Amino acid sequence: MEEAQYSYPAELGIAMFNERGALKPSAYQELYMQAVEPHLLNIRMDEPRLIRDFGVAWVLISMAFEPRRAIRPEEQLHARTWNSTEKSRLLFRREICFYDAEERPVLLGATFSALLDMQTRRVCTDRALARTFSLPAGETLLEASDRLRLKTPAEAPVETVTARPSWIDGIGHVNNLRYGELAYDALTDAQRAQIGALRRMELFFVSETHLGDTIDLHRIDTERAAIVTASPAGAARPAFTAKFLFGEEHA
Predict the structure, then answer these.
(1) What is the residue-averaged pLDDT of the chain?
(2) DSSP 3-state assignment of 144?
(3) pTM to 2 decimals?
């Protein structure tokens, strides 16, 4: 099956941009889902079918995005996506590329996902089942990892939040888009003003967060980067981490 034969239009809504006209972090996640959800339906690997027939659901492990240039609200973009993982692994790597009207790449992305056993709430380790959803491995677009080993910072959190009902998705945990929003909110005003100069964003999803859970947000700053962690209260390791790398403003 040649997955890249499919092309999916992107919908760029004004809510995806900040007041300076730059895409917010969660917008990259939303664009990814706009392409991948209909694509999984096309290749019969959609979540409703997996839950109904196999008792498993897709769960994101990590996401990485690299914008090639600024994306503007009036643009017409389309995306192609394909599997890039060897068949023996329990993790599934997927590439995505967004193109402009002239077929020039404007945003590259890669994700790692696993199958979540809906009964045990653990990653499915049934290799026979995993092979059912294996696809030919295509090219990789960028360097990406499925894990980041980081401890919860010892400093006081910049904010503590409680998981709200609106954050919970059909799998029963905080949806990945909410984490992107939390990370953006945890940045300083100056860092949010630099989002238009974003060169790379990496998101790592380590463990589930559920309704009513208390989450401590920490931020680690460097000259050109910011790391935001979201940890359950008292946890030694974050449930989620975001890394932002900034450069010069995109043209």
Answers:
(1) 93
(2) coil
(3) 0.92
